[in-house]
């Protein structure tokens, strides 16, 4: 009876006080997209923060250290990382060593690294070292630098190469913050895509912090005999001593660019915008690592004529770094938006005609790329299917220039004011998140097209081959002037000397050279070089397009073959060198290409090597 009374009393108290059993804490399940270029399973367990502690050994040309992750476990019994050509020495979970598992090796993706975890696991640490097959790293000897006194190290993580120097969940949709401690020789300065030092430390140890969450491919490191020079309180440049003044002059408009960008699409979110000019082996024009853009020395022309590249990398601070493609199939969301933004920055600073010249060159690149893909029309879609392929295959003019043309056509359809308001809200709404093509189209339809009762063939642009018929027409009055001179010269109504006397900017000269017709009167090409001396051009862009045309026209005068070989030996920018090797192959000079490449190959980054190896059939 007493037990029943107590039970009844307890039930009555519970009813009166609405007592409930405490609920177990539940974690909100994420909704990451399927990424065929990563082994990670972020819907089960994902890294949120990285503490990277590494030592850079220039003698052995390796990096050793530990990557420690703060993790969220949603439903996993293991957390899976991506690794490629790394030696994994040890793994711990919350301080306790555990047995890890490496999956089968894939030539493109590398291996999965699976580490067992419990429901309440908080921290995973991986001790490792890189190898001589680590593709992201390039160790340079002093002779490969500008000052030729100290060695240099640079990294390049895009698209899926960060896994070759850090064990990481290497998918762009997995954003994380990071801190790093990096030990280097005391004579050198280390800088990263993070808060950076401006001077060398006494002992060669540096600490870094990236407080905003970024995608893995944006983690970057450079180590060399570098110095810093400020342009404004939030912009500046790093370079080797012999180059710092030239670089500072070339990029003097960086603060103006940031101001122009902010006036278009909102506050710059990364606090600092610095640029480091790397040795010439760097494979890209630029890489938009947050807070620290990596740049090729080929843009140091002495006249600020190639600085649209800096506007492009700055624009990535919104399109790419702030709102990031979720997978590499959505790469156009990074690059198409960035080219559009770049053109708007250049227009704001230098006028619409200047921007139209740049856009016209891109439009010609796009036409050439579509011709290259005539047997692969699916490769000209904006939304790609790169399963089973290296995502690097999708990094071409389609993503950049077709993506730009789509947005420019959209702007001309809806009006610039509505387009700007839409893009500003897009960046603000999705800041520090990732975006799929499908999600963007849904947002575009809801927030721009339907609101303004506008019909636009979005699916044709995104999911079909080629260029839709409603594409915007890009016109340049200055290029029309060039076309008139080109016609007059071709039909001998003016001389080559008359051509060289034209008061043209670099873009006009490039347009002229690129549009020299395949068939000319005998000696006309030679006379042009005699008058203009293009074979000895100091501007790297002009040199590249001229060498291509010299090959196309079987021209060997003015020591052009040696100049071309010297160029290929000293420049590692993939776009430039691949254009020339491709022209040699196309014009039945494959043996010349292979002979030069055999000597030049050790100077190139693996990103460039992989492209040229495949192009020339090198095993």
Task: Supply the key terms.
Zincin-like; five-stranded mixed sheet; Neutral Protease, domain 2; 20% strand; single chain; 619 residues; Immunoglobulin-like; disordered N terminus; alpha+beta; 37% helix
Low-confidence runs (pLDDT<50, min 5 residues)?
Answer: 1-25
Tell me the CATH architecture of the largest domain.
Answer: Sandwich
**Named CATH topology of the largest domain:** Immunoglobulin-like
Strand order in the sheet with the most strands: 5-4-8-2-1-11-13
Radius of gyration: 27 Å
The chain-level structural class is: alpha+beta
Per DSSP, what share of the residues sits in E-state strands of 2 or more residues? 15-25%
The fourth-level CATH homologous superfamily of the largest domain is tricorn interacting facor f3 domain
Mean pLDDT: 94
CATH class of the largest domain: Mainly Beta
User: What is the distance, rounded to the nearest whole angstrom, between the alpha carbons of the first and last residues?
Assistant: 89 Å
Portion in helices:
25-40%
Q: Largest sheet, if any?
A: 7 strands, mixed
User: Number of helical segments?
Assistant: 19
Number of strands: 21
The geometry reads as globular
State the domain count: 4
């Amino acid at each position: 009876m007493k037990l029943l009374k107590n039970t009844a009393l307890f039930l009555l108290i519970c009813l009166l006080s609405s007592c409930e059993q405490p609920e177990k804490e539940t974690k909100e399940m994420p909704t990451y997209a399927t990424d065929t270029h990563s082994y990670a399973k972020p819907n089960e367990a994902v890294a949120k923060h990285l503490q990277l502690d590494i030592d850079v050994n220039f003698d052995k040309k390796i990096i050793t250290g530990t990557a420690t992750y703060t993790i969220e476990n949603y439903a996993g019994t293991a957390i899976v990382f991506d690794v490629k050509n790394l030696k994994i020495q040890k793994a711990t979970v919350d301080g306790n060593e555990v047995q890890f598992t490496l999956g089968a090796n894939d030539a493109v993706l590398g291996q999965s690294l699976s580490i067992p975890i419990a429901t309440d696991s908080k921290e995973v640490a991986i001790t490792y070292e890189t190898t001589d097959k680590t593709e992201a790293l390039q160790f340079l000897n002093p002779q490969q630098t500008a000052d030729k006194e100290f060695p240099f190290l640079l990294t390049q993580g895009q698209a899926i190469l960060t896994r070759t120097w850090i064990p990481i969940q290497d998918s762009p949709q997995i954003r994380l913050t990071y801190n790093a401690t990096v030990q280097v020789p005391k004579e050198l300065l280390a800088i990263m895509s993070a808060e950076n030092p401006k001077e060398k430390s006494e002992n060669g140890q540096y600490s870094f912090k990236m407080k905003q969450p970024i995608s893995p491919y944006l983690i970057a490191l450079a180590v060399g005999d570098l110095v810093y020079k400020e342009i404004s309180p939030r912009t500046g440049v790093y370079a080797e001593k012999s180059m710092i003044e030239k670089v500072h002059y070339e990029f003097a408009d960086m603060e103006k660019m940031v101001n122009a960008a902010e006036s278009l699409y909102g506050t710059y979110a990364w606090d600092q915008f610095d640029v480091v000019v790397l040795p010439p082996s760097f494979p890209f024009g630029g890489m938009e690592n947050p807070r620290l853009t990596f740049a090729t020395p080929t843009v140091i022309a002495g006249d600020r004529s190639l600085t649209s590249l800096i506007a492009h990398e700055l624009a990535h601070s919104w399109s790419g770094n702030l709102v990031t493609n979720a997978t590499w199939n959505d790469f156009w969301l990074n690059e198409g938006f960035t080219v559009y933004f770049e053109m708007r920055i250049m227009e704001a600073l230098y006028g619409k005609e200047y921007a139209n010249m740049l856009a016209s060159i891109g439009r010609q690149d796009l036409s050439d790329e579509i011709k290259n893909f005539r047997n692969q029309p699916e490769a000209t879609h904006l939304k790609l299917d790169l399963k089973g392929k290296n995502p690097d295959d999708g990094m071409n003019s389609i993503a950049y220039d077709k993506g730009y043309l789509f947005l420019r056509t959209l702007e001309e359809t809806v009006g610039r004011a509505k387009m700007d308001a839409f893009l500003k809200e897009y960046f603000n709404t999705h800041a520090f998140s990732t975006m799929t093509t499908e999600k963007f189209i849904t947002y575009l339809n809801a927030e721009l097209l339907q609101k303004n009762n506008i019909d636009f063939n979005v699916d044709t642009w995104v999911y079909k081959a080629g260029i839709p018929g409603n594409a915007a027409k890009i016109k340049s009055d200055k290029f029309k002037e060039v076309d008139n001179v080109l016609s007059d010269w071709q039909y001998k109504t003016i001389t080559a000397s008359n051509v060289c006397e034209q008061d043209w900017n670099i873009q006009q000269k490039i347009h002229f050279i690129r549009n020299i017709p395949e068939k000319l009167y005998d000696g006309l090409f030679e006379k042009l070089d005699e008058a203009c001396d293009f074979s000895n051009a100091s501007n790297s862009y002009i040199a590249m397009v001229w060498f291509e045309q010299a090959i196309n026209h079987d021209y060997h005068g003015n020591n052009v073959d040696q100049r071309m070989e010297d160029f290929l030996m000293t420049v590692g920018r993939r776009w430039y060198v691949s254009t020339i090797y491709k022209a040699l192959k196309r014009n039945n000079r494959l043996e010349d290409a292979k002979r030069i490449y055999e000597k030049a190959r050790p100077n190139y980054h693996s990103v460039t090597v992989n492209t040229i190896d495949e192009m020339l059939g090198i095993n």
